Amino acid sequence: MNKKKKSGLTPFFFGFLTALVIGWWIFPNIIFSKQEQPFNFSHKAHVEQLGDCSACHYFRDDGSYNGVPSLESCAACHSEAITGAPDEKLFVEKYVKKNREVPWKIYQKQPDNVYFSHIAHKKYACKTCHPDVGNSDTLPPYFENKITGYSKYTMKMYQCERCHAKNNASNACYICHK
Amino acid sequence: MSGLMQIHHEFKVRWGMVIDIDKCTGCGACVVACQAENNIPPATKPFDRLRTVHWLIIYKLTNGKTGKDYDEAYLPRPCMQCENPLCASVCPVVATTKDEEGGIVSQIYPRCIGCRYCMAACPYHARVFNWYDPVWPEGMEKSLTPFVSTRPRGVVEKCTFCHHRFQRAKEKARAEGKDPLDLEEDAYQPACAEACPTGAIYFGNLNNPKHKVAQLIKSKYAFRLLEKLGTEPQVYYISRRKWVREQADNEIKHQKQKG
Amino acid sequence: MAFHRRDFIKFVVGGAVGSLFTPIPWKLADDISIWSQNWPWIPRIPKGEIIKKSSVVKLGNTPYGIFVNLVGKRPCTISGNEKHPLSLGGIDPLGASSCALMYSPSRVKNAKLKDKNGKFRDISIDRAKEILMLKLKASQSKKDSILFVSGDDTSSCNEIFSALISLLGSKLYFYEPSDRQKYFKAWYDLLNGSGETGFDIENSDLLLVAGCNFLDNWGTYVRNQKLFGKNNVKIYFVGPYKNNTSVVSKKSVLISERDIYKFLFAIVSYLTRISNNLSPIYGIEDFTEFLAYKYNPLLVAKEIGCSVSDIKEIAIALKKAKSPLVIAGSTTNGSGDIKNILAALILNIFLDRINKKGGIRCIPNPPQIISSSIPHTEILKNDLIDLIKSKKISKVKTAIFYETNPFYSLPKEIRAGLVNIPFKICFSPFMNETAKQCDLIIPSPYFLEKLDDCFTPFGSGVANYSVADKIVDSNIPNPADLFIDIGKKLGINLGISSFSDIVKTKSEYFGVSINKLKQGYVWTDNTNEIPYGLKIWDKTLEDIFSSDNSNKKNGLELIPISISKVGSDLVGLYPFALDVIYEDEIGGKYSIAYINPTTAQNYHLNENDLVKIKTESGEIRAKIKINSGVISGAVAILTGFGRDIDDVFNKDIGENVSDLFSLKRDEKTGSFYWSPTNVNVSKI
Questions:
Q1: Chain B partners of C643 at a C-beta cutoff of 8 Å?
Q2: Confidence at residue B257, expressed as pLDDT on a 0 to 100 scale
């Protein structure tokens, strides 16, 4: 009598495991594409020169935050190449001379309908939400979601809501949306 | 007051508007300022209700008489920002709710599924639907403002009392070290109130006795639209003309008035 | 071990169950929902710093000061400038859309030259400059062969243009015919006043508005509205149609535009009876006699169709008021009779309002920086219509139109006179009707794209000077600079090197720094000229008011109505105009003609009937709407439609009412007007 060996639940577990592996290891890698910033910017070098973060990242008079500095503020010192760095040469030639704003890729890029007020969150350290680039010579890699086009590090709504709820701040819709 | 369940929200700040109909000349500056400020695509056909999107509309009222007794008036109608918003109570996905910080009824475009229950519920027809994708003639998208997101086809939108100006006013107050919820009257004015040349549109905090609107709503000439429905709108109107006040609610002629 | 189908199914099921324990389904759902909210064809909004810069709106209607909000370098919205005396913080609908209008599809981007087939060819600005120079050079030998029509009567560029053409031998410099000219003629010529009439509405507590749409389209209407709102000024309105002014007036009396001066004189007549002391001004006794004889209130009321109590009520209100002011004007700028304006000024003189608080102020004339330019008052005296009707027009070989649109707004007779000029050049920011009629179009920068200044527009209370700096980058040169360059090439020295030079000189003359002016400060001066020779009545005036051209009415009277929300003659319907024009104001491709129930009955017309409206000049089609706010025997139509501008906001919307205008000359004053009284309405 030929007894067929029953495979039992083995294929099920195989499938289960394969799904787990794909879901947790392969999928997160393929959904994001790695992109380069226009050129490398060394925060460390600039902090040494200018001392304080607020030399380039500051609150304006009306309370808004300037975010990433404009071409004008960088060109104030870098209208010509002042160090020998190849990245700086690229910056001066491609952007300053042509009066083009640098298309930085924003790690915390939020959609148009989100309104975030930096000054309302003044009491929190920058690295609560942003990668700590102040001490690094290079910019962290930028991962872009292939489906949505937003950054991997873009904060989701539940992260904002959670912190608001914990700190007794309002979670009304128009606090954060426009 | 009707028999509807009255939910009185005790907010610290209640943004309200008072529109003086006896000062409104019907010039239309408020509507154009609203369209420009809120990134509303410009209409390309006159009064095409299917394609035109407008948050603020000006109604022309007449007293129905002829000859020498004929009189007319203009009535601008923004979203009433009701205290009991009928739209918020029917939204299946909570894309619209009554915000606690200020009492503005918020409308979140990405969350809206476009079922239009809210449009059916609103007795003031203050809500508009994007039947088509918004189109800006070539080059005109350069005049978009950074204040309000652009809406795709299939979502409902409505007047928001220019809450983005409220957000910016709070930022400014914080920058100056003041309380963001205790704003001065001129710190936050919506685009229509700012543009109105005769100053017929007053805007401010109804709870703040220093603001003009808080004083104006106590006038005996102040009225709201469709008061019988119990929506408790935050937009009041003032007119010294009785026939204008009478048009604010649906009176059945020869009905015995109770109370 | 063989791999059976059942195993495969178990594998797949396992995979499916396993994927539920991974982020895949949730992340994919979330990402797809975000992807569906970010369609690439929905434009993104800009981000950046919001900067406020000051400017002065110059779009064809009255100029006024504003703040422009720029995000990054792009203007996005307009805010009011509370300190500017011409706007006091208000904005009009056209101004509120000026950021979007700048990108309108009908902007003239390149210079254009018309070829033999009547089609436009793009040419370079330098080539256009060459052609302009050649034409100007050719006219040097012939006197008065260049005609210049300027649409902006407040800018210093008029000095540059008029200086160049006058040094080339032509004195034919005109402003577009308007109420301002009528006021000037009435005040300066006929009443012997000095300076230009200024209206001190700031200190007025009662206004009698006669005919014009004071709060929406007359003079400095943005300021008018602000003052009305702030000071709670009481307004009495007298006119043929209920408009934006009458809707907020204390009382409005509907009478024909032809009869307004009779109403005003009836008021004076009544006042002479109830007041004892009359101001000892030249001609007052003759005037009182004349009024008693011809303008008895009872007779006037019967003739013009109002009640005596209306006349009495307004007369008493004027007497009781501390600082009343009477303001007259045409329903559409320039279309009405000068008699109404004269009568209003006479009433103001009678009430002793000249150079008094809240009354008519005599504003001094603007300074002349270039000595060879034609002074502003001389230009105001020049009547373009007189020229077209005279033999002199045949000598004109070149016409230059600067930011003006006579081929849309003026009667057909005037257009016919202008179109025969051999070579026409147009400076315009928009491709409007006049640009299309011209042979050479040179783009004029939009008001945000150029340096410009503004001195005392019509309707101001005091002399004022404001400057608007260039806010948006543009490579379109300022026409004034073009003229200075051409002058240099032709060997003519105007005495200044550029337009910014003359603006700076003017600011120094007024004693204000140019930078302060560019940031929004406005120079004002309330010194008044003293009208030493002012008279209230004389033989000429008696002659003028003795003739009555309002009698023979063989048809309906046309009331052309101007409102600010349809844009301006120069610009057409601006991007957001169609959002504020409602069903009762435009009938798709037809205009709307308002008639009152009595007129409808007499002419057997019903609501929404399609009709043909005809005068000897032309005809238009319109839909009828019954409106009790129109006088009997008249049809009221909104102007500003029927534009020949190739963009989506203007095409096929309404019809041009100016096609109906029939030019008439008041024999005694020599002033022209064009609201017809013999309109024929027939059903289609």
A1: none
A2: 61
What is the Cα–Cα distance from A126 to B251, expressed in whole angstroms? 59
How do residues B208-218 score in pLDDT, each as one tens digit?
999 999 999 99
State the pLDDT at residue A2. Answer: 54
Q: Where does the pLDDT of residue C285 fall: very low under 50, low under 70, confident under 90, or very high at 90 and above?
A: confident
Is the CB of residue B209 less than 8 Å away from at least one CB of chain C?
Answer: no
Does the pLDDT value for residue C554 go beyond 90? Answer: no
What was the pLDDT predicted at B1? 40
Q: Do B27 and C653 touch (CB under 8 A)?
A: no
Strand runs (DSSP E) across C393-484, as ranges?
Answer: 398-402, 423-428, 440-443, 452-455, 463-468
pLDDT tens per residue across span A56-91 = 888 988 888 988 888 888 888 888 888 888 888 888
Q: How does DSSP classify residue A85? A: -
Query: How many Å apart are CA C303 and CA C305, to the nearest integer?
Result: 6
pTM, two decimals, is 0.93
Helix (H, G, I), strand (E, B) or coil at C468: strand
Complex ipTM, two decimals? 0.92
The residue written with tokens 């210093």 in the block is C156
Residue C180 · residue C376 · CB < 8 Å: no
Q: What is the DSSP letter of A102?
A: -
DSSP state of C564: G
Query: How far is Cα of residue B178 from the mean position of the Cα atoms in its chain?
Result: 28
pLDDT tens digits along C393-440: 999 999 999 999 999 999 999 999 999 999 999 999 999 999 999 999
Residues in chain C with CB shorter than 8 Å from the CB of B109 are: 37
C551/C377: higher pLDDT: C377
Q: Is B145 on the interface with A (CB under 8 A)?
A: no
Q: Which residue of chain B has the CA closest to C93? A: B29
Retrieve residue A63's tokens.
């309370």
Tell which phi-psi region holds residue B47, choosing left (phi > 0), alpha (psi between -120 and 50) or beta: left
- Average pLDDT across chain C, whole number: 92
| Residue whose pair of structure tokens reads 């008011």 in the numeric block | C545
Q: Where are the beta strands (DSSP E) in C58-155?
A: 64-71, 74-80, 111-114, 120-123, 146-150
List, as one string, the DSSP characters of chain B.
--SSPP-----S-BEEEEEETTT-----HHHHHHHHHTTPPPPSSTT-TTT---SSEEEEEE-S--GGG--EEEEEE-----SS-HHHHH-TT--EEE-TTB--EEE-TTT-----HHHHH-TT---EE--S-----TTGGGG--SSSPPP-TT-EE---TTHHHHHHHHHHHHHTT--TTS--GGG---HHHHH-TT--EEEEETT-TTSHHHHHTTSTTEE-TTGGG----SEEEE-S-HHHHHTTS-PPTTPPPP-
For A19-44, how does the pLDDT look when each residue is reduced to its tens digit (9 = 90+)?
999 988 888 888 888 888 888 888 88
C-beta separation of C314 from C520 below 8 A: no
Cβ neighbours of residue A155 closer than 8 Å, sequence gap 6 or more: A108, A110, A129
Kindly state the tokens that stand for A44: 């460390």
Between positions 30 and 69 of B, the ones with CB within 8 A of C are 31-33, 35-37, 39-40, 42-47, 52, 54, 58, 60, 62, 65-68
For residue A110, the one-letter residue type is Q
Of A62, A111, A178, the CB nearest to B171: A62
Asked if the model's pLDDT at residue C208 lies above 60, the reply is yes
- How many other CB atoms are found less than 10 A from the CB of residue A20? 16
Q: Is the pLDDT of residue C278 over 60?
A: yes
- Inter-residue contact C312 to C195 (CB < 8 Å): no
- pLDDT at residue C203 in the model: 94
Question: Which two tokens mark B26?
Answer: 């019907």
| Cβ pair C222:B197 closer than 8 A | yes
8 A C-beta contact, residue B51 and residue B132: yes
Per-domain residue ranges for chain B? 15-246
Q: Which fold has domain B15-246?
A: Alpha-Beta Plaits (3.30.70)
